[in-house]
Amino acid sequence: MTLTPAQRMTIIGAALLALFLGALDALVMSAAMPTIVAELGGLQLYSWVYSAYFLARAVSLPIFGKLADLYRNRRLFMGAIVLFCLASAAAGCAVNMVSLIIARVVQGIGAGGIFALVYIVLADVAPPEKRGRTLSLASSIWGIASVLGPTLGGFMVTYFSWRWIFFINLPLGGLSLWGIGTYLVELRSKKADVSLDFLGVATLSTSILAFLFAFLLGGRTYPWISLPILGLLALFGIGTIAFILVEKRARDPILPMDFFRDRGFRTGNAAVFLSSFAIFSMFAYAPLFIQGVQGKSPMEVGVAMLSLSLGWSLGSIGLGQYIDRMGRKTAALGGAVCLVAGSAMALAFSPETGTLYSFTSFFVIGIGMGFVALATLLAVQSAVPAHALGVATSSNQFARTLGGTVGVGIGGSLIVARFGDLADAIRDQDFWAQLPAGVAEQGGHQLGELLRPDVLTALPPEIRAVVQESVGKGVTAVFWTVLAAAVLCLFLCWRLPQGGGSGDTG
After folding, report:
1. Where would I find the H helices in 71-197?
2. Do 477 and 335 share a domain, yes or no?
3. pTM for this one?
4. Which of 208, 243, 197, 207 is closest to 112 using CA atoms?
5. Is there a domain that residue 172 lies in?
6. Residues 243, 261: one domain?
7. Alpha helices in 347-460 (DSSP H)
8. Domain CATH for 289
9. Tens digits of per-residue pLDDT, 92-119?
10. Is the sign of the CA dihedral 104, 109, 110, 113 positive or negative?
């Protein structure tokens, strides 16, 4: 079935609006969370408002990808939007932190469906020669959301109520639902006889959750060498083996193991895993260096970090215009070179480094991520038959999710180790009496307060030097892991097949 240009643009607009909902929801929370905790209580559950959403989204991504190859995209997409909107309404009406977290779990499932289906629908409706350009539009949405998200969240909380950061999803979701429901048509043939791989879903979900929990808790809540973390990693290993065995025997597996024989599929997903490791580690921990070591204001931190999002968006959008002429492998290699160059620049950070230098290095990393993300997505999509487009697309997004989780988890353990050294150094040098009121009483548990610019400037020079050195060493260790991931990503991009098509099993 063919689409008119007007139909195609309406479908793309509705899909991008749905993506904007999910992207915005992930970004507005930071400004609202202090107010939410003050009203609902449950400070001990603070991190689970984020983690519950993130875990549910990660588990649902590959499941929706497979469902999109079996059932009509229109129904699935509408179902994901309705689920997301209903959960948003429930979150906005939450009476305590537990009810908010439950709503966030359901919201995460809906968001996983939206994120998977947006890229699948964009790939479906785009003519083959314009697929790269169409998919690159999704990156512009992330760029817009990264600029508007925190600002909109602050505005809503200040002038309305934190509940409106959820309620605003309802009219936007309704508009997207109308566009998808009215104009989206099925362009790929689907099987009449469908066999759902329930055992595959169960083993995959178990494996994913064990893996993500291990990296969310390891090195922070529990030491890496501890019974809970080792148990989670063992469960991940057992779940993965069980999943592989189940998939080899399944009539219609959720993730066919044969796909991994194709170099474009396995190398493309591994490369985007490493690029996500790099950029999300930067998102998470570079602000600690800029604020805690360089003493920059939160506004300057925001400007510097915004360049990561802008680089990612502009890199992907720019590449979308030329990737057909440039080729996927060349584009991925160019992006990986930018990742390596930007990561190497970050290693030169010092207390005297200016905002412009930080902005430039992050922008280069962002450009690299934009290139690698789009080029590997196209490589993975072209590595499988057309009927498996959903599985291929969601596998690439899932690899990005895992890469970010592992990067942030490893970086967090490095930072926590350095903060432990900082507490020991302060105790050894008897500086507790000189700490700001309230910090010393917490026994070092609130040492993060020392990174606030006003507190840092008020510290005696000796203790300020200890804090800056400790934070600087911790974040620099993260920068080295980022550089290592970028170099490995460069090697894998070099290993991508030139054409990226199916059948290359080298």
Report:
1. 73-92, 97-125, 131-159, 164-167, 169-183
2. yes
3. 0.80
4. 208
5. yes
6. no
7. 355-382, 389-428, 453-458
8. 1.20.1250.20
9. 898 888 888 889 889 989 988 998 898 8
10. positive
